[in-house]
Amino acid sequence: MAKPENRVATHGVRCFSKIKMFLFSLTMAYVAKSLSGTYMNSMLTQIERQFDISTSVVGLINGSFEIGNLLLIIFMSYFGTKRHRPLMIGVGCVVMGLGCFLMSLPHFLMENEAQNFLFCFNAECIKEIKSSMWVYVMVGNVIRGTGETPIMPLGISYIEDFAKSENSPLYIGILKIGVVIGPLIGLMLATFCANIYVDSWSVNTDDLTITPTDTRWVGAWWVGFLICAGVNVLTSIPFFFFPKTLPKEGQEDNVDVTKSDKEVKHRGKAKEEKHGITKDFLPFMKSLFCNSIYMLFILLSVLHLNAIVIIVTFMPKYLEQQYGKSTAEIVFLIGLYTLPPIFVGYVIGGLIMKKFKTSMKKAAYIAFCLSLTEFLLSFFYFLMTCDNFPVAGLTTSYDGYVQPLYVENIVLDDCNTRCNCLTKTWDPVCGDNGLAYMSACLAGCEKSVGTGINMVFQNCSCIGSSGNSSAVLGLCKKGPDCTIKLQYFFILVLITSLIYSLAVIPGYMVLLRCVKSEEKSLGIGLHAFCTRVFGMNNFLTHQTNTILIVFNRNIYIGVPAALRGLSYLPAFFILKLMRKRQLPGETDSSETELAETKLTEKKTECVDVHRSPEVENDRELKTKL
Fold first, then answer.
1. What b/e readout covers 327-347, taking b as 16+ CB neighbours within 10 angstroms?
2. Does 372 have pLDDT greater than 90?
3. Which pairs count as long-range contacts for 337-341, CB under 8 Å and 24+ apart, including other chains?
């Protein structure tokens, strides 16, 4: 009776160790890391107000994540494969949680310091306490970036090693869905925290004279970081229970039969790894750099990512300007028309590759054709545009005459030169003359009445010489034609998002399978490193370029189209090279798995067969010969 109980217990442990349990845990880790990243980006304005720091310091804080990530990602991708990968991912999640906790710490330190400073009675003293606390946020963000490094390369390589080759695309598609869910939760969390006052737990909020729409308002930024810290630590727990290696998916029942063989192989591998843990790093790097398909794929990814960054970064402002809708409405529509088709596309792309057991050459052709179709459809965006708003100093002069877009020396006029206005600030107002202005200051307004979205600016010298002219927040209204064109725009967005997401999984599988299995994790890490370093549009963060891109549809649509068009050149060469050679990943196909299964079955049969003297004599004779 003892034996069956033992078998059931073993089966229970084995079920927990299956690749699908690991996939679920890794997807949750993807959700947690993307949640933290989106929340951080959404809270930058609140952090800027809390610590009273400059925009350049905010940029440094935001970029500190990449510093921590890029410093370690290549080495973690290599050395992590030599160690216990699930354990490394679990530690990474804990480190991310620690980084998020450290980012929330200044809130408590500032409160304690202000109470302990007996001589701190004025605003200048409190400002001095705040001035250095942003360093904690920056260091926490560096630690968060460091903790994220093992999750993607080690997680994907673990799935690739132990999942069936035909199931791997579907699993990668599910992981990609985690990257979509995380930002959604992050945005909701950021909205919730931004509407809570930063010191709500220590002051009476009924006595507050400001609202979340006021520029002096500071939201409870620290609350979300504590939540992110808890989520990251919770997602780390399952990884500490996964083994270093799993039986190949579909071969779990043969574990007991082949256990001794695998133990012998594992010991041999462990000895080899101890010998070559640093010795084969440079050969692996050389092999990747000499892999023409892999290097062309990196070039393709960099060009493509730069195009996507422009589209995603400026889409809300561009649509707000083009179609005259509020930012909140535009962001809601973007989420509604892009996220569901991306969801569906990732899953269908993975299912198609699983169902038809698509070879990598076919996957490359599928990805190329789908991506090219979506690229050609995107040119219809040029037809779905409205005329630019007349904006004084940008598209028209202050007298209402049309002028070339954005000429630096005519942004200021005689009516606003005495106001010392910032010429690169985009906070538009609509004058009662039907002309929009870059800001209330540039409209020459002297005072304001009301709060929030109901604020009205009065005595605006640039709008009317009488001094009784006024302006309201936002751009001037557009006609009903623009609303119809906006509907067509989002229908096209839905179609192109679906086609684009269908191409993602086949394309990514080409990247995974074009490198040798032992180089896979390092290859993923190097790819991530290159795309992050060369895929950042730093020049686009300048406000001048922002205004230029938002107002010139030829630049907003044309520059990404040019970059994506260039990306098809390396894609074409990848297809050409794949015709002539066998990819390393193709050798790990179902044929290899079938051969291994047959070999295992043959070994099992040999255990139960009694060798006759004749057979032994024959073998001795063959050995001598």
1. eeebbebbeebbbebbbebbb
2. yes
3. 337/490, 337/491, 337/493, 337/494, 337/497, 338/493, 338/494, 338/497, 339/180, 339/184, 341/494, 341/495, 341/497, 341/498, 341/501
Q: Which H or E element spans position 322?
A: helix 292-323
For residues 529 and 77, give the distance between their C-alpha atoms in angstroms, rounded to a whole number. 11
Cα–Cα distances in angstroms (integers) from residue 597 to residues 160, 588, 594, in the given order:
18, 13, 5
Q: What is the pLDDT of residue 116?
A: 52
Instruction: Please tell me the predicted confidence (pLDDT) of residue 53.
Output: 81
Q: Are 226 and 100 in contact (CB under 8 A)?
A: yes
> What's the CA gap between 479 and 19, in Å, rounded?
55
Q: How far is CA 593 from CA 47, 163, 600, in A?
A: 53, 11, 11
- Across the range 412-427, mean pLDDT stands at 78
3-state secondary structure of 396: strand
Contact by Cβ (8 Å): 438, 428? yes
Distance CA 386, CA 314 (A): 17
Q: 131 vs 120, 124, 125, 203, 543, CA distance in Å?
A: 14, 10, 10, 22, 25
Asked which of 3-7, 15-19, 359-363, 401-405 is least confident by mean pLDDT, the reply is: 3-7
Across the strands, what pairs with 458? 447, 470
Topology of domain 14-246 in CATH is Growth Hormone; Chain: A; (1.20.1250)
Q: Could you give the count of Cα atoms lying within 13 Å of 546 in the half-sphere of its Cβ? A: 16
Q: What pLDDT, on the 0 to 100 scale, is given for residue 118?
A: 44
* Homologous superfamily of domain range 286-383+482-588: MFS general substrate transporter like domains (1.20.1250.20)
Q: What are phi and psi of 511, to 5 degrees?
A: -60, -45
pLDDT category of residue 263 using cuts at 50, 70 and 90: very low
Q: What is the 3-state secondary structure (H, E, C) of 12-73?
A: HHHHHCCHHHHHHHHHHHHHHHHHHHHHHHHCHHHHHHHHCCCHHHHHHHHHHHHHHHHHHH
Proportion of the chain above pLDDT 70, given as a percent: 74
**Apex 487 CA angle, 483 and 489, nearest 5:** 110
Question: Is the model's pLDDT at 30 over the cut of 80?
Answer: yes
Show the tokens assigned to 293: 């398909």
In the chain, what's the furthest Cα-to-Cα distance? 118
**Antiparallel, parallel or unpaired: β 391-392 and 436-437:** parallel
Give me the residue spans of the domains in the chain.
14-246, 286-383+482-588, 387-477
The Cα 133–Cα 138 span in angstroms is: 9
Inform me whether the pLDDT recorded for 10 exceeds 80. Answer: no
Give me 435's structure tokens.
């002309």
> Whole-model pTM?
0.75
pLDDT tens for 213-258 read 666 788 889 999 999 999 999 999 999 999 998 888 877 655 443 4
CA-based nearest residue to 152, from 320, 30, 289, 304: 30
Contact in structure between 119 and 164 (CB atoms under 8 Å): no
